[in-house]
Amino acid sequence: MLKKIIISGFGGQGGLAIGKNLAEAGMEAGFHVTWAPSYGPEMRGGTANCSVVISTNPIGSPVFASSTELIALNEPSLEKFEAGVQPGGSVFVNCDVVTDQVRREDLTACYIPCAKTAEEVGSPKVGNMVMLGAYVAKTGFLKPETIETMIAQMFAGPKAKFVPLNIEAFRRGMACVR
Asked: Does the N terminus or the C terminus of the chain have fewer Cβ atoms within 10 A?
């Protein structure tokens, strides 16, 4: 198994947190993992993306020319990275922000209403957890329980009060693709 994932959006949308959760859950599940964040000096509101590689075999480099999956949280991300997805790959689109459709017919497109679902859960800040849930449910290579453990670890100490909200958003994201 080899997953080469690009997660991209504006700074502040939580794309890097999605990548970090995937990487940590992959390690917990016993896979080989790399996580390489990339963001401009603008941070919040600027562009931010990360590359995650999860494999059953050792990984030679965190850099790759084409991805197996793309998570596009905004329009520029879909425009920039769609062409680099391998034929037969998947694209997860935040359809509350991205109005374009995936153009390539050799890709599987999943349109996830991240903002709408996050609002239903009670906070616009958990849209990234909605997308993470959709990705985990659709790809099926990581256990939801592992991700929920990672969420609980991410929000430790004074932030522990946010764990139930984020887990609910994650579960609602899984329901979007079932």
From this structure: C
Instruction: Give per-residue pLDDT as tens, 65-107.
Output: 999 999 999 999 999 999 999 999 999 999 999 999 999 999 9
C-alpha 94/C-alpha 87 separation (Å) is: 21
Whole-number Å distance between alpha carbons of 6 and 19: 8
Question: Which residue type, as a one-letter code, is found at position 177?
Answer: V
- Residue listed under structure tokens 């034929």: 87
> What share of the chain has pLDDT > 70, as a percent?
96
Do 115 and 94 contact (CB within 8 A), yes or no?
yes
pTM over 0.90? The answer is yes
Task: Report yes or no: 13 and 74 within 8 Å, Cβ to Cβ.
Answer: yes
* Residue 57 exposed, middle or buried by CB count within 10 Å (0-12, 13-18, 19+): exposed
